[in-house]
Amino acid sequence: MEQQTNGPEPAAVSEPVSRRGLLRAATVSAAALGTAGLLAGPAAAAPAGHSHGRRRVPVDRISIQLYTLRDQLAADLPGTLAALRRIGYRRVEHAGFVGRTAAQFRAALDAAGLRATSGHTGIPQPFDAATWEQALADANVVGCKKIVHPYFGRDAEGRPIRDAAVYRALARDLNQAGRLAERAGLDFGYHNHQLEFVPLTNGSTGFDILTEQTDPRLVHFELDLYWAWRGAHDPVDVIRANRGRIRQVHVKDLDVEGGFADLGDGVIDFGRIFAHEREAGIEEYIVERDDAGTPPRSPADALDTARVGFDYLASLRY
């Protein structure tokens, strides 16, 4: 394996918008609302999922990926964590330790009254058991229950991977990583982007290979709902094909141009997806927006995204 994938969540990647995925997301959400008006713009999408059902996202399962607040955390770690707790978050998913040791980061979380139940830490490539075991030890210091490989899909030159053999090799590495994680008392997962849904030279997709060739007992999936739609894959179809393996979801919204949006301002009908939560096996609903707090927005805007996301999920009915 040549791709370097260890480390925290990478910078947001810019991929060409799959027009098919965008239109399908909008059309499916419009059908759920009983109107095609959703296609007219974000405002029409805001009520999606709020108008029906008695089920709700358990508040204690709402989390946030700290990559969303990376600049704010770098400027003021204790203050930002405290602000998240005031919003209502009880748990977070880390994307590295913000320049601290695992013990220092855990102390900052404890002081804020938060738990990092999950973390993004890439497996070493080429795979090295000793390096991975140290990452697992750090995860246990922080208090994580889950550790997630955050990114794959490009070769050393930055080109999208189209070779099925590369994904088969990754699946073997993921199984090794999952086996060691299990021994360390941790659940191991894989987080998707759009690239895993790009057709390979053999006609399959990287996501197909990863789901088929990883051991369900060792590897679960953290399904990023935005990137699935960007890859022209309906998350409900992904759930149905992988029952019990979608234990975490990244909840981020898709605007009408294919960019990021705060929850409720885009075209994704999250209620429709979460209606399949038991089939999926979802244990965590993780708010994320890749461009929150980055120009032209200010770092402080990331807290607005966090607040909107928490309130949206807490009030959602489906």
From TrEMBL:
Q: Which domain of life is it from?
A: Bacteria
Query: Which SUPFAM superfamilies does its entry note?
Result: Xylose isomerase-like
Q: Keywords on this record?
A: Isomerase
Q: Name one GO molecular function term.
A: isomerase activity
The Xylose isomerase-like TIM barrel domain sits at 81-287
The record's annotation in InterPro entries points to: IolE/XylAMocC-like, TAT_signal, Xyl_isomerase-like_sf, Xyl_isomerase-like_TIM-brl
**Extent of the signal sequence:** none
Q: What name does the UniProt record give this protein?
A: Sugar phosphate isomerase
